[in-house]
């Protein structure tokens, strides 16, 4: 079985005007699709994404000149200008004008909620003329009720080959907790209060036939559809999750761009009152 930890590397983090804070996920994604194959017309969806080249899915997007649907709750003019410059920098670096097509495939504004995500995905599939199982990658990163959005999609039979979900490493590993379905992104002043715990996400994914195949430190959980479950080894959250500030710094120094630190690093540990803000799922 393939251990995806052996393929960590950053390849495309400088394919843009502003450096992309990757966690050596480029190599992991490249190896995953080398092993399982992909659709003839590569396609990814990433929400919570403002960058035209993608962030988590960047290696797949650029490496395969992939179609993509990227959206976020808001995208300012500055980001739109940077996105255009990112594409032209990629053309210069690769000496290939095929990336001009990305100019017609930019991120758009959509305030995603659990009660509107399914209708959006149905429209996406109709527009792109693909089936729900032919999404190569779905990446979810909205720092709030990610759990409930993923749950809605899985319950409605959206089954991407690779499903990547951000988790909160600051929540207890042995509790299934999720940010509630509210439109406020700041229930607590503590920046460590966001998203869902490892156990919440893992229980959900296993229920719908997905296997954990990679843990990107303090950021993302990578799940393979069960079609490919026997091809990859399963990582151990107790070994991969940074459980202290020192562990988080070590991971960042090993796998992220120089000087990168997670925004919550200097925040205090979550209090009992902070944890009470989360739903048990």
Keyphrases for this structure?
9 helices, alpha/beta, Rossmann fold, 281 residues
Please describe what this structure looks like.
By secondary structure, the chain is an alpha/beta fold. It has one domain: Rossmann fold (3-Layer(aba) Sandwich), CATH 3.40.50. The chain is built from 9 helices and 9 strands. Helix 3 links the parallel strand 2 and strand 3. It is globular and about 55 Å long. The model has no long low-confidence stretch (mean pLDDT 95).
Q: What top-tier CATH class fits best?
A: Alpha Beta
**Low-confidence spans:** none
What number of structural domains do the residues give?
A: 1
Global morphology = globular
Radius of gyration, in Å, reads: 18 Å
Strands in their spatial order, largest beta sheet: 3-2-1-4-5-8-7
Query: What's the CATH topology label?
Result: Rossmann fold
Main sheet characteristics = 7 strands, mixed
Q: Can you give me a brief rundown of this structure?
A:
This protein has 281 residues and is of the alpha/beta class. The chain has helices spanning 25-36, 58-63, 77-94, 117-128, 146-155, 198-207, 237-240, 245-255, 272-275; strands spanning 43-47, 67-72, 108-109, 137-140, 162-166, 177-178, 210-216, 220-225, 279-280. It has one domain (4-280): 3-Layer(aba) Sandwich (Rossmann fold), CATH 3.40.50.
Helix and strand layout, with pairings?
Elements: H1 25-36, E1 43-47, H2 58-63, E2 67-72, H3 77-94, E3 108-109, H4 117-128, E4 137-140, H5 146-155, E5 162-166, E6 177-178, H6 198-207, E7 210-216, E8 220-225, H7 237-240, H8 245-255, H9 272-275, E9 279-280
Parallel strand pairs: 1-2, 1-4, 2-3, 4-5
Antiparallel strand pairs: 5-8, 6-9, 7-8
